[in-house]
Write a structure and sequence with these properties.
The complex is a heterodimer.
Chain A: E1 4-7, E2 10-14, E3 19-25, E4 33-38, E5 45-50, E6 56-59, E7 62-67, E8 72-77, E9 86-92, E10 102-103, E11 107-112
Parallel strand pairs in A: 2-11
Antiparallel strand pairs in A: 1-3, 3-8, 4-5, 4-9, 6-7, 7-8, 9-10, 9-11
Chain B: E1 5-7, E2 10-13, E3 19-24, E4 31-37, E5 44-50, E6 53-57, E7 65-68, E8 75-79, E9 88-95, E10 109-110, E11 114-118
Parallel strand pairs in B: 2-11
Antiparallel strand pairs in B: 1-3, 3-8, 4-5, 4-9, 5-6, 7-8, 9-10, 9-11
Classes of the chains: A mainly beta, B mainly beta.
């Protein structure tokens, strides 16, 4: 039972371009939506997160867009750099449910020179 | 603070053997989570502790799996009679949650994981 669906599975972007990763969720009770970045051999690291009371959050080159009615959210990476090459996971959690994260299946991003 | 530490980083075992993984969370964190990650997939929740109390176990956690956090600090995850399907990365994460307050961001900090290969 996959509660958070993520696409695309992989993405190749040119240096300086915009990377866009999309996620859709099913459980309308979810109230916290983080994005994690994972490099090979490392654990996931929190990149940016949003709550459903706002439609957009920006931190540096990273922006989350959130559409509550469509139950979708996306990560935009502006001015993508080779150092951004990693696997990105969207996730969702319910505060009253122990805050345990339900992850998407991941997007492998490669930024080419 | 050196973050979340997991040991061993890699474990190769034969089917039927028992294995144990250890997680040392960030010292002031009161919550500890175990996740399992297979190749090409996102981490899947296994169980979590609030201090020393195990509050929830996923249906993924069969009877062969047991987790403990005896003094509310480090945690161990033991897998008995390992099967090839247990091969995965086992991730530990910790967080600090202020009980009794309204919903705040529960930021999970993950360790680098313990990779298990069952032959």
């Amino acid at each position: 039972q996959q509660q958070v669906k993520q696409s695309p599975q992989s993405l190749i972007v040119q240096k300086g371009g915009i990377s866009i990763i999309n996620c859709a969720y099913e459980n309308t009770a979810f109230d916290y939506f983080p994005w994690y970045q994972q490099f090979p051999g490392k654990g996931p690291a929190l990149l940016i997160a949003i709550r459903p009371d706002v439609s957009e959050k920006k931190e540096g080159r990273f922006t989350i867009s959130f559409n509550k009615s469509a139950k979708q959210f996306s990560l935009h990476i502006m001015d993508s750099q080779p150092g951004d090459s990693a696997t990105y996971f969207c996730a969702a959690s319910l505060t009253g449910g122990g805050n345990k994260l339900t992850f998407g299946t991941g997007t492998q991003l490669k930024v080419e020179l | 603070d050196t973050g979340v530490s997991q040991n061993p980083r890699h474990k190769i075992t034969k089917r039927g053997q028992n294995v144990t993984f250890r997680c040392d969370p960030i010292s002031e964190h009161n919550r500890l989570y175990w996740y399992r990650q297979t190749l090409g997939q996102g981490p899947e929740f296994l169980t979590y502790f609030q201090n020393e109390a195990q509050l929830e176990k996923s249906r993924l956690l069969s009877d062969r799996f047991s987790a403990e956090r005896p003094k509310g600090s480090f945690s161990t995850l033991e897998i008995q009679r390992t099967e090839q399907g247990d091969s995965a990365m086992y991730l530990c994460a910790s967080s600090l949650v202020y009980l009794g307050r309204g919903s705040g961001a529960n930021v999970l900090t993950f360790g680098a994981g313990s990779r298990l290969t069952v032959l």
